[in-house]
Amino acid sequence: MTAPAVPQRLAAPEPGWTDTVDVVVIGSGIAGLTAALEARELGSVLVVTKDVVASGSTQWAQGGIAAALGPGDSPQDHLHDTLVAGAGLSDPAAVRVLVTEGPDAVRDLIELGARFDTLADGDLSLTREGGHHRNRIAHAGGDATGAEIERALVAAVKRADDIRIIEHALVLDLLTAEDGAIAGVTLHVMGEGQLDGVGAIRSRAVILASGGLGQLYAATTNPSVSTGDGMALALRAGAKVRDLEFVQFHPTVLWLGKSAKGQQPLVSEAVRGEGAFLVDHEGKRFMQGRHELADLAPRDIVAKAIMRQMLASGKDHVFLDARHFGDEKWRVRFPTILASCRSHGIDPVRELIPVAPACHYSSGGVWTDLQGQTSVPGLYACGEVACTGVHGANRLASNSLLEGLVFARRITDSLAAALPEFREPAVDHRVPGLVDADVVPELQRVMTVGAGVIRSASGLSEAGATLGKLIELPAGEPGTPGWEATNLVTVASALIAAATTREESRGSHWREDHPDRDDEHWSGSLDLTLPADGDRDTNMARPVTEFVALKESPEGKQQHG
């Protein structure tokens, strides 16, 4: 298999300053801030974040956090729904960790100060979303769950005098010792931070919680900081990434016209959980009969149904009908979405809401074990940047916040048992490289067309060929735009390699030239790495893949082998 070549490390000035801490946490969403709070007893903790501490993807989460907290629900029921959504690729052991440890983790979050919506009797107000057979989605502020969780975590971190924060900083690459284990990070502080310019932080462990890759696509629900930085720097350090072909496209993103680009307003799945339904341009419902849950089917099924409807009709969007909610329900339950729609000239109380799929979440990422340890000693990962095995081929709605919360706690428990010693960084012999910052719009276009919701061998090949040409363009001076562009190209290259290899349709990976799920040949995961010992006469390396099949567990359930 061929794939575009990518830089083995980022071209950047030599570090002009150094510092030392026990644990570096990269990212400040639910995963990163939970890890930082839990890691304080291990020693000194430093949180590095690209913008202000509250600017990550967590604050944009509308629907809620899923956990078996209500009457009639159970972790076993939650496990079943998660495995079904994962389309045969979820690791049952990882899912069991999520669903059994999740309820207590949410209760601890409430103890920390997160204020979830409650009923008149004080019990949590729980709702449903796609793929769930029980009401188990806890929400806050109606549709502002992520913002409330982020508020509570940021407040707790700022109360903790033993956690340092560097804002407006981009982590460039990982420092590794001669044996490949983590020795620290290099980073660039962008003027408004506590330090200035490129520096190096020595550390005993690095916890990667940097979020996803949404900016690979022209339309996304992700903020501008989601440029795949964590996945890219992990690949450059020799880490294994898994299931990168499974990018979830949220089925109901507010359609703002053909020219709309960048972060788009999300219309939460919880709106359908409360009874809204999809209709075509003639007002006819089209999800009934396609799945037992109809409009509340798992996201990949709904997104595919919308795309099929759009292709058949020649239209570039469908509609969501929630007019029957009435004014009060919209104001109380979905105030954020109501305001967003009205700011774009749409009144959902009286009008249909135009929606279309857009890039939302990466189910794959940097591979970890059940303790969050990656294939690089001393490097841990949690949240969207990680692939814990929970999501498989398609994430179940509202499992993302819970996964970040649960596995961040498991990482710090693991580090408490065996915190690595400080290691001396080895001399890095890899020749640095950089991609031209101006390639991003074209990169987003070709990824949307060739590696978006619908894929084929020809479309993926064309996207890969275009990436190869973009990489070869002369790069400018090192800086944040070029570093982000290089990270995007690196992750795009790996994603195309995986999507090209998987010749079937499963979960959120839809190959029109291989339209069926093929359990005989593809019931397993694809791992990708960038060889750390690549050709030193060039600044490029090529992704290689390893197919990891599933095997039967003693209980008869499939597990990753």
TrEMBL record:
Its EC number is 1.4.3.16. Residues 483-523 form the Fumarate reductase/succinate dehydrogenase flavoprotein-like C-terminal domain. It comes from Kribbella alba. Its cofactor is FAD. Residues 501-522 have a biased composition (Basic and acidic residues). Signal peptide: none annotated. It holds the Pfam family FAD_binding_2. Pathway: Cofactor biosynthesis; NAD(+) biosynthesis; iminoaspartate from L-aspartate (oxidase route): step 1/1. Belongs to the FAD-dependent oxidoreductase 2 family. NadB subfamily. This is L-aspartate oxidase. Residues 22-401 form the FAD-dependent oxidoreductase 2 FAD-binding domain. Coiled coil: none annotated. Catalyzes the oxidation of L-aspartate to iminoaspartate, the first step in the de novo biosynthesis of NAD(+). It comes from the Bacteria. Its main location: cytoplasm. The keyword Kinase does not apply. It is an enzyme of class 1 (oxidoreductase). Keywords: FAD, Flavoprotein, Oxidoreductase, Pyridine nucleotide biosynthesis.
